[in-house]
Specification:
The protein is α+β, with helices and mostly antiparallel strands. The protein folds into 3 domains: 165 residues, no CATH class; 100 residues, Signal transduction histidine kinase, dimerisation/phosphotransfer (DHp) domain (Helix Hairpins, Orthogonal Bundle); 149 residues, Histidine kinase-like ATPase, C-terminal domain (Heat Shock Protein 90, 2-Layer Sandwich), CATH 3.30.565. It is 50% helix and 17% strand. The strands form 4 sheets. A 5-stranded antiparallel beta sheet has the order 1-2-7-3-4, covered by helices on one side. Strands 9-11-12-14-13 form a 5-stranded mixed beta sheet, with helices on one face. A two-stranded antiparallel sheet has the order 5-6.
Amino acid sequence: MGRKTIYAVVVLGLLSLTSILILQLVWVKKTLQIQENDIVIQNKEDSLNAREFNYNVVRSLQSVAKTIQVNSQDSIELYGVVKKQSEKQYIVDITEELQPYYLETLLKKAFYDKNIDQDFVYGIYDCFTDTIYLSKLIEFKGDSIYETTKSNSPNITAKDLNLKKDGHYFTVYFPNLNKENIEPTQLFSSWIYITAIVIFVVVFFAYSIVIIIRQKKLSEVKTDFINNMTHELKTPISTISLSSEMLMRDECTDLDKIRRYAGIIYKENKRLENQVERVLNVAKLDRDQVILKKEEFNIHELLLEVKENFEFNHLANDGQVYLDFRGDEFSIQADPVHLTNVVYNLLDNAAKYCEHTPQIIITTKIERNKLLLSIEDNGIGIKRENIKMIFDKFYRVPTGNLHNVKGFGLGLYYVKLIIDAHRGKIEVKSTFGKGTTFLISLPLVTSS
């Protein structure tokens, strides 16, 4: 997958997610508007229904009062006889005693005529005896049928009705009369659910992009490794082939030429052998498979030997390795072969990635029962964005216009692997264009 394809996927994904979010916001806004309109309409309907219910109750209670007046042959003004005590309670003044069963019958008939389908409780106050009678709950069962319950549910008492003690009257209370309104809970629950889905999609998309970018980088690193390996192996093979061809010619009888070509073949063959062996060995190395052959040795003696060999074989143009041993000589317990390779790899990189005369400083000191080894160079340095990847397998720092640096990208991977196997740490400090310093920390005594 090319870089342009990845960018196209990212852009299309972001556009899709943005579109989903915009549609969601538009949907929520419209739904809220519809909800507000429904609430206004519902409130109007509730207001009309409440006025209609109040009107029907008052007319029903006036009808009951009129019937009581006719039967008792008492003359009372019906206007104002019904008083609304609260949204659920009404009081009707009367002039004499009233039998509960008789009042219940009148109320059921009056409510039936006005289609009042609410449960109710009624009470009667007798001023002569100063007593209050409170009925059981009379439930509406549908089809204008009322039934009296066995208990006064929901536990209504005379105190709850706040009944006064003044004259004869009866009262009617509707305990289950509720004003229903539209609640936005379901709307916001749906909105939260959809938002959670969108967030999940965003997280999954971001994770997928990260995986794609990582795979792309890994593919580029592996491709670079294959190209470098092909070039590194092809060069000695071509040299060997050319030298062999010269030896096979009949006119090649000069003993010096024969020795020279044979020497070239031997040298290039060893070079080829070392390169193949290096690739195979590092490819087999794994953190759990590194076998260390530890022994006690003087780290200063090892560094002196590495310095001499490296300067003799690799440094030219007056390049030099400086040793700065801060403290007395001391011994450590480690694998001398692997540790030698670690130092040699770091010195090799310092020389290869230097555009001037290599000046390398190796410093050792003891701090908190640990060996601190630093290797500082005056090379081209490493950019900050590349430092975190230099220990990855096959990774090679881009060198810009510097094309003569050869390698497989396995050296620093090997260094990190060996240092970790010794239970040590390695850090990098670099200033691009000025140089790099590798800081190695090793315990003085490591477990075998």
